[in-house]
Amino acid sequence: MPTTFKQAVTAIRRLPVDTVTLNRIVASVKSQVKQARNPQDLPRLYRSWISLQRQLVEDERWSSLSDVLDRCYKRPPQWYHQFRSVSPVQLKPFWPQVHLIDEFGTEPALRKYHEAQALIGASNTSWLRQGPGESPFTMLRKYGSGVSLYEQLTDKAVKLTRFVSHNQSRLAAKRNIKPEVSYPTDQYALPLSAKRQNNIFVKKIREVKQLVTQFVPLAKYDLDWLITVASTPLESSEVAINPNFFRYMERKREIEKEQLSPKLRAKRTKWWIPTEHNIRKHYRSYVTRQFFIDDSGNYQLSPMDNFFHNQKPLTEALHEDQ
C-alpha cells in the first residue's frame, strides 16, 4: 500500500521541534507536493520523512534531531549544485596548484624539473621561484579571458574549504583539507607523469566536493531563530516545543509498559521522555556548530559560540535551588 501525504504529515506532527519549525516542515512538504512534476516521486518524499520520524521518535535516537533541522533549514546555494556536477578537467586551469620542488629546489634542479614538466605539457607554474614570505600560489597563472563560471566555482570552493579547515573545531565535523593541489617529485627530482599528476588533481577535487556536500551554511535569519529557540528560558511561552510530541510519547510509554514482554521490560534501562529543557539542549548543541554567510558574502561562525550561551552560571543556579 503506497505511503500517503496524510501519513507523512501525521509523522511530522510528532517531531520534537519548535512549532515554527514544525509548521515550516509541513508547509515545505505541501509545496513540494503542489510543484511535483511526477506524482510517482511523492511516496519517496513521504517515506523519507516517515523514516526520519521513526528513527528519531520511535527508535528514540535523539541525536537525529540534527538531521531534522538540517533538512528543514539547510538550502545549498546554487553554486553547490554546479560545483558538484562540474568535471575536474574544467576546473584545472583555475585551481590553485603547486609543485613542491619550488619550495626547496636549487636553481639547476628547478630548471631541469620545469624543462621536463614543459615536455609533459601540464605545467601550471611560473619558472620563477618566489621570494621569502611569498605564497607559492601567487606564481600560478590562469588561463582564459575574463572570469568564467569555472573560475567563480573554483574561488567559491577554495574559500569554503579554507574556512572549514580553519574552523573545524567549531563545526559539526572535522575536515582538515587544504584546497591547493601539491605535486611531489619522483625519486630523481623530476615531475611525475601526466597521468599521476591528473590522478592527484582528481582526488583533490573529489575530496573538496565531499566537503562541499557535507558543509552547508544556514541563512542568517534561520540561525537567529534557532538560537532563539535554544536560549529562550523555559518559562517563556513565545517559543514552544511541539506539544503533540509529548502527548504521543506518553501514549507510547503506556502502550510499551502494557505490551512489552517481561524480558524486554527488564532490559529497558529507563522510561525517560525528553523534556523541553532536553530538547533545547539539543538545539544548543546544534547551533553552536553551524555557520552562515553574511551580507558581504563571507562565512561566519554561529554567534552562539558555547553550549551555555545565555544560561545562568552554575553557582547562581545552585544558590537558587537552596
From TrEMBL:
Keywords, sorted A to Z: Mitochondrion
Primary site of residence: mitochondrion
Keyword Mitochondrion included in the entry's annotation: yes
Annotated localization: Mitochondrion
GO cellular component, one term: mitochondrion
Function of the protein: Essential for respiratory growth and required for maintenance of mtDNA. Required for cell survival in the absence of prohibitins.
Similarity remark: Belongs to the GEP5 family.
Name of protein: Genetic interactor of prohibitin 5, mitochondrial
Lineage: Eukaryota, Fungi, Dikarya, Ascomycota, Saccharomycotina
